[in-house]
Amino acid sequence: MRSPDSPVLIIDGLIKDVGPLASLDGKMLRVVGGLSLVAERGQITALLGANGAGKTTTLECAQGLQRRTGGSISLLGEDPDTAGASLRARVGVMLQDGGLPPSARPIPLLRHIAGMYRNPMSVDLLVERLGIAQFRRTNIRRLSGGQKQRLALAAALVGNPEILFLDEPSAGLDPQSRQIVFELIAELRDSGMGIVLTTHLMDDAQRLADYVYIIDGGHNVAEGTVAELLSSDHSAGEEVTERTLFFDAPAGLDFSTVLGAGLAVSESRAGSYAVTGALTPADLAALTAWWAARDIMPASLRLEARSLEDVFLDISGRDIR
Amino acid sequence: MSNALAGQQAGMEGHAGPAPLLRRVLLQGRYETLAMIRNGEQLILAVILPLLALVGLAVTPLLDGLGGSRIDIAVPGILALCAMSTAFTGQGIATGFDRRYGVLRFLSTTPLGRTGLIAGKVLAVLVVLALQVLVVGGVAAMLGWQPRPEGWLPGLALLVLGAAAFTALGLLVAGTVRPEATLAITNLLWILLGALGGIVVPTERLPALAQSIVHFLPSGALGQALRDAFLHGVVPLPAVIVLALWTVLAGAAAIRWFKWN
């Protein structure tokens, strides 16, 4: 029998060629070239990379939706290419494009899918948790992007899977849907589900992931926990001098004159500031003194040596977007 | 509340699994049947147009002089038209758009799987076809249809074989071209084959050149086979072979070339 500690997914040296493509003079295109990863139970594993990096293809090979060209995949100990209904019952899938019939209504569709399982989750509970009741009488084609994503997540979960695949789960999510979805994903992770997601958003990975694989050009170029990736120096030999100071304070402050030269100050949202550059202890002292003189107490304060964006930039030599 | 789903998860350990295969296929069959019946355009194609054609053939002299009453000659062709409506055009268009929206890919990741999905579609085609036979048969009876009693068993079996051939062809089209093209192709072929392919108009009424071709088409073979069964109580072996060949070839081609995404 499988051990409760065994990984939910092991991908070793995955290769996927597509084609032949007319745009390549009839040659095959290698979409994934030697990608390896391990996803554990009770963890959120993120595949982070730009569009076209091979994330979705990797997921689809793991789900048995695409046949791999080479390498091996063990999904809950089985090969997804030869898997039967009993394996599929243990795997939940949320596709990037949803995969929901536009003419259906949310709850009859969820009940229909639940019927495919011997012991499904309670549809009523999922409907309540994901706020589906508020649009239960609406045809799927008329739902907003966030509503569709919530329904697709419910459809992926209704079979009570051991491993859950989420392809770009935050795509099209409004802030409210995002909060609902992220909370549920974290809760499912805590209950022992293995969750594998793809994202091109650093913020998603930083907020959700226990372990991150950075994917570029069809293979993994770096891996680790978010903390490990942030502390490692991928531009070998160079000391990290670039830092960012984030803080929330009243909007419209102008403190650039108290800081040293060469620092970039931005206010991304009203009252949400970021100071980036070669910050020195003197800069920090000057800024806090400036606050003290004006009786300003920041609502939050955070200093980061690097962001995942910096890590990605170092590794791939280009911006993720 | 926050632990409710997590609690479910833990409580299910060791019990997770698929519903039995038969239940999965029956569920999908019911789902697809309801989707077909609730679709207004499909209803027009599946019931209204065949009934209009039936009444048209019954009140015009188009089928006179073929050795039977107008209605007796007309009904088997209308039943063949029904099979083409549901199995080829209706099911083909529905599958084409399900493919576009990723529904086929999502359902194939559930315990239903690809095989269960196809089985559910075939089941839905058979259920809708049975309803069509009841409606068309009922209207035809009121118009004076008197089929040979011994023709029912082979007639219905041939109808199922014809539906199999057209389902395979519909899936082949739906799985290989864009849904808009599927819509155009299956509707156009429905009209062309229905009128000139030996379905509504018996092969004998077509030009000599067309006759030799039509015998080898699934439409001509099904129309001929159903007329032989219901009019004369016999099963024409060549037509059965033609239908079986179309089923096998189109089915194999669909398996080979069907694209799920």
TrEMBL record, chain A:
Chief subcellular location: membrane
Record keywords, A-Z: Antibiotic resistance, ATP-binding, Nucleotide-binding, Transport
Keyword Nucleotide-binding: yes
InterPro entries in UniProt: AAA+_ATPase, ABC_transporter-like_ATP-bd, ABC_transporter-like_CS, ABC_transporter_ATP-binding, P-loop_NTPase
PROSITE patterns xrefs: ABC_TRANSPORTER_1 (PS00211), ABC_TRANSPORTER_2 (PS50893)
A GO BP annotation: response to antibiotic
Domain called ABC transporter: residue spans: 9-242
A GO term from the CC aspect: plasma membrane
Membrane topology: Peripheral membrane protein
GO molecular function, one term: ATP binding
Subcellular localization(s) per the UniProt record: Cell membrane
Protein name, entry field: ABC transporter ATP-binding protein
